[in-house]
Amino acid sequence: MSQKIAIIGGGNLGTAIAQGLINSNFSDPSDIVITKRNISALKGTLPKSVKITDDNVKAATESDVIILAVKPFQVAEVMKAIAPALNKKQLLISVITGVTVSDLKEMAQIQLPVFRAMPNTAVAIQESMTCISYDNATDKQVQLVTKMFNTVGKVAVIDDKLMDAATVLGACGTAVAPRYIRANVQGGTAIGLDANTASVIAAQTVKGAAELLLSNNTHPEQEIDKVTTPKGCTIVGLNEMEHRGFSSSLIRGVITSYKKIAKD
Ligand SMILES: NC(=O)c1ccc[n+]([C@@H]2O[C@H](COP(=O)([O-])OP(=O)(O)OC[C@H]3O[C@@H](n4cnc5c(N)ncnc54)[C@H](OP(=O)(O)O)[C@@H]3O)[C@@H](O)[C@H]2O)c1
Is 79 in the pocket of ligand 1 (CB under 6 A)? Predict the structure, then answer.
């Protein structure tokens, strides 16, 4: 029997998750209920048989899986309202940034399986990297949640204490990669390409390079070796970038972002 899923907070992420679940046939639209206070904004964005409501308690009561997708400052109020309606057979999943598994357990007030999922903005095109941590769940429940988030991209199950580190690579990384692409466009324009053509070449090249690593399951250096001819133009360019601190600046940026998350 398919799972009844309540998505509490039908914004960018909540809607993208609903679309992923439906497009991948993980869920029948009629098994999904999505909530929001201003429901008119949701009309027309999802198949008609998805239930749309502003009643969080009813949505939670009638579902097997509850996905929290409101903003961080809204979670306490939402959980206060729905906690009395939760039961131990349900799964509680939060995609809310900065809310830990232990915060969720405290807000739920009962011992139910609790998951935290951290996707990135590529969830909108079903190409997210989603990291998942959990407590009090069976292997079967972990498999189910992994399968759910596989509908919007790739999934890694990690320890909750690594979630900040995963956020830096997976969520902040969605800003770092475009900056790399933008620099390529700047360089490409300087050597004669128009900006539009340079953008397509740079973005598709990054996409292809990432796909090679994922499909071949290779170390990045193996793919680099394949394109660096001895005395060729690639290696001299790469070495010049390294002399200017290419890898070092990225590593330092990752560590600085991590320190900022830890501090806040
Ligand atoms: N977007 C991403 O790619 C991404 C990635 C990782 C994590 N996150 C996290 O995911 C969460 C949602 O992000 P988002 O970008 O989707 O934000 P968003 O577009 O602002 O969505 C939040 C939704 O929650 C609804 N909401 C607020 N209070 C509610 C309540 N009491 N009951 C029911 N619905 C309520 C809002 O609609 P109304 O105002 O009409 O109620 C809004 O549609 C955030 O915590 C964010 O940190 C997002």
Answer: no
